[in-house]
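Q: Got a minute? One more chain.
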Amino acid sequence: MTEEGRVPAASLAASAGVRDIPATSFVVPPRRGSLIDRDRMVKSVLEPEAPILEVVAPPGFGKSTALVLCAEADDRPYAWVQLSEADDDAVHLGRHLALALDRLAPLEPADGARIVGAGRSALGDIFPALAGVLADRSPCVVVLDDVHHLTSSEAEAGLQMLLSSVPEGSTVVLVGRRIPIALGRHRMDGRVHRVEASDLAMGLIEAAELFGRAGVSLDDEELADLVTRVEGWPGGLHLAALALHQGRNPRSFSGADRLVAEYLIEEVLDGTEPEMVSFMEGSAVLDRMAADELDELLERSDSSRMLGSIEAHGNLFLIPLDHDGQRFRYHHLFRDHLLQRLRRDDPDRALELERRASGMRARSGDVDSAVRHAVRACDRERAAGLILGSVLDRWLDGRLGQVGEWLDLLGTGAVDEIPEAAIAAAWCAVAAGDRDGAERSCRAAARFADHGPLSDGTPTVEVALAAVRMLMGSRGVDRVVSDAEVVRQAGGPGVNRLWALATGTQGSAYAMLGRPDLARERLSEAIDAVGETPYVRAVGLALLAVLALQDGELATAVTLSRSARSTADAHGLECFAPAISVYAVDALVAANDRRPGDARAAAAIAGATVERLGDLSPRTALLALILLARTAVAVGDRPGARRLLGEAQEARRRDSSASALNAQLAELESCLGSGRDLDRVDVEALTVAEQRVLELLPTHLPQGMIASELHVSRNTVKTHTASIYRKLGVTSRADVVDVARSVGLLA
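A: Always. Here it is, folded:
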């Protein structure tokens, strides 16, 4: 089978989060040899030089073709993104854009890591990075083709960030049947040039050249009459040329709407050999295709010849996707009609071809297309199995939004009807830190206890539920150990894809229970069996480093922590919340190794990741906060240590089942005392406004009344209070007053 996306291993396109994006979807499409020049139209599109170009028209008006011609005439380089339903996930969309911009000039490693690293957020990381990447390549043009596929609010928000930062001399082009992005503000600022159907319509000279190349001869009156009746619609004129070449009457064509398109396509197909029609209908099941793929799909061996025949007959609705003439797609208008015919005339064949296409796309790694083909084949069970088999990978590469969309495609009742859908939904909820949602999905899955093996290879629903619950950990550390053991007993590392994750999770739980020997044994086993799961390896090494540090083996701890950090950095895990312990451990080890600068840098990464944990695991948060508080003590930041201690105490209130962590927290509480041992020089200076708020905190007035007293907003008081808490290293109002008095900030 032809492989899309075969790229050098060092390139951005080789990264785990983008490998499934077809290479032909982020290159400028080649110009077809039969394409006529349209200088007038190109000039009208390019001349305004606006930072945002909006090209909106119904199907068949040559929107993409117009931009291909513009790319030839423009001195600026073009980055092209052919959008699909998959791009409605904002993370996927941002990475797709990055691949296109990477073709103009390779991304800097730091930009690449910010865009494709695990746990990256679309609006917090990816699109801000893309704005800088675009600026570095200016002047250039970025084409977003078929933008009507974007419907999510996050995808729109990401594009708005990009549109607001288009540098001078560059242009972002939005191409689609409709533009689902609010451009009113940009339009008021004079930053938008709009191209509509009337701007893309063909005139008499262009139509005459089109008909001449199709071998159709019309006199001036017939030509003018036909152009007038189809209103210059390029798609209609091309269909008319194909039909006229087959001897149809030019006076039978009128209008420029979809009904006429369907009529004209039928006219063309009626004059085509039945075998070719059958080939085109079957091949239309794939949104992009190569001859070897069609041979497999249609169970034939002459697809290359058939594609060549379509090209030779001048059908402009077969569009090349690469410059080698190996990959193609049909124009959306033509493909939609072919699929409509196939489903109407031979529904059984349509379903069978969709099933085959799902298998083909799954084997090539394109899970998104595989799921959609399975849904169109009315095979929800297969689709749910594909989703379940991909959910952990999508969690790691940051595209959980896609999984949610796939589950929506199955319909509202799928979680209650298909065990794979219920387990996949539970994994999604765990990854999002939604404990209530995870419990609901687990209850739904538990009703399938007698189902037998799941399609992802998990032997029973019980094992699948144990895997979800061991990470959720809502029933305490002891149950994490037992849940992980259920998963481990379902098969060794050679047959059980969750074995390494379960073994590493069990090792972590043993460490939290104060059983270091078992912890070392399990963590070492997980590291040895980890395979393609860098997160398990990095966290396992980090936890072994903590155990070494507890035993006074600093040199061993340094070696293990550096290895953990190297693995995490190589796979961009610094924003992946479950990997927070890697950076928290690295901070503490560096502090003990008398490298305070490295300690603060690692602590900053871990500290920024705490909030990303959500409700996923209070114990993971507790471990990280204890490590960070100990780091702060080691580098002399006692106020910071007290603040972290307060956060750790809150995490323990949510889950107090980790006895070893409880003991470490008690030791830290004893070390840090009440806060009255602070010296005023240790306290970060308060601003004048913060001091005014502080002086009213002993009065027990609520924040709203303090705001009235100071003639400021309640939000301002809230902000100042939070800053005071941080600077004094406390988490309650009573502690603020006590510590402030002890250091002389209050009388």
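A: Strands lie at 52-56, 78-82, 141-145, 171-176, 192-195, 289-290, 318-320, 327-330.
Q: Perfect, thanks.
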